[in-house]
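Input chain follows. Return structure tokens only.
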Amino acid sequence: MVRITEDLVRRKSEHNEREIFSLEELSLHHENIERIENIDKWCKHLKILYLQSNLIPKIENVGRLKQLKYLNLALNNVERVENLEGCESLEKLDLTVNFVGELTSIDSLKSLVFFSELYLTGNPCSQFEGYRDYVISTLQNLKTLDGTPVERSERIIATQNYGVIRARIVQQQIEYKKKRDKEREEARIALEKEDQEKEAAKAEAEKKLGFDGTWYTDINAEDKEKRAKKQTEEAEEEFKKDKEFWDTKSVFSPEERLKAHKKLEEQKDRDRKREDAKNPPKPPRRLFADDGRPLNVNEPKINFKLTEDETGNSYLLDYQCYKYLDTSMIDVDVQPNYIRITTKGKTFQLCLEQEVNADSSSCQRSQITGHLLVTMPKAKQIVKSSPKPAKTSNNNKENESNETQTKTNRKNMEKLEVDESARKTVDIGNIVKEKGEVSVPPLGSKPLGKKREEKPLSENFVDNPDVPPLE
């Protein structure tokens, strides 16, 4: 039995971001549901509800849906229209191909002010004499019945003959009820007989397997060919039984529909088992050897590159995962002697020659290429010193000879002699010279030029006091 659970409703409300409280439309068709429940508590703002192609025998638990406008219950096992008085906004009800035989049950739809469209095609009540006249005279607000618009003149004539039509409908309902009681009894007897046959077949199978206290050894004497032949014979026999079941005429009743549904489920299970036998599931991938050593595994078949960084004393793993793969689908696990990356449920595992420090490892992903770079520093740190040349006795002698030679060179250094008068730039004691004494300019200085002579003024020159003198 399939029940309406919160998980099912949330899966069917993806268009509303899985929020069920504010849900306005819900589709639960082809789910083999056998009862309406919990919808009126979780989805109080529901306006459209699809429940066609299920196994629902009764309309219930929808009275609290005050905003419900359209209810689809086609291809179910409903036998009576009921429990819809609380759906104040209901406009359309679809009960196509159900088992509604009590036509007077539509009286519960009279109080619905907005109700205007009803579908009862394929129900036993649609075969009653005066069916259409009774429906349109009972439901005065109805505009469409079974896809056909209701004419005003048609309703007037049906209302005038309402008493006669109703009496005729009630009589036909009584006859149909007797017929349904007979069908239920026959279905019950057939079900008991079928259960007895199954129990007898089960007991026979147990007896063949030696469960009666004695063990028979002939069951293991068959070879592979005989077993295969036996399996094919069993499959042919099952096929014949299935063909006979589907070719026989059945009564149009809820019990027969349930029986056909169970037969379909049995066939699906049988076919599934055969497929599983032909294609047995692969054994789970081993990640560790018997002695506990990790194994190299590459289930996703993704290219990678492992290098050693000598300067940083670490391993660098370039995992070339797909460019547009979401990062949430990648799980990285670094252990001291191996690294494991899970990509969409597929495992990549790589052993490491040296132990690494898992706590100090880092992981980065490129936004351009999508590659994953995992840096794993090694646990054993190596300290390297710069090489120094070894000192020998010959080297010491050479160094001593070089030092003595430099000292002698410094002693024998030649110096240039400069005239003392030219070398002195400024004589502080003789800054002020006496009259008649010529001063010697400092070394490297330029001699001062002669004083420039002023030109004589012209005859027409007028000295203007407002003009400042030129300097």
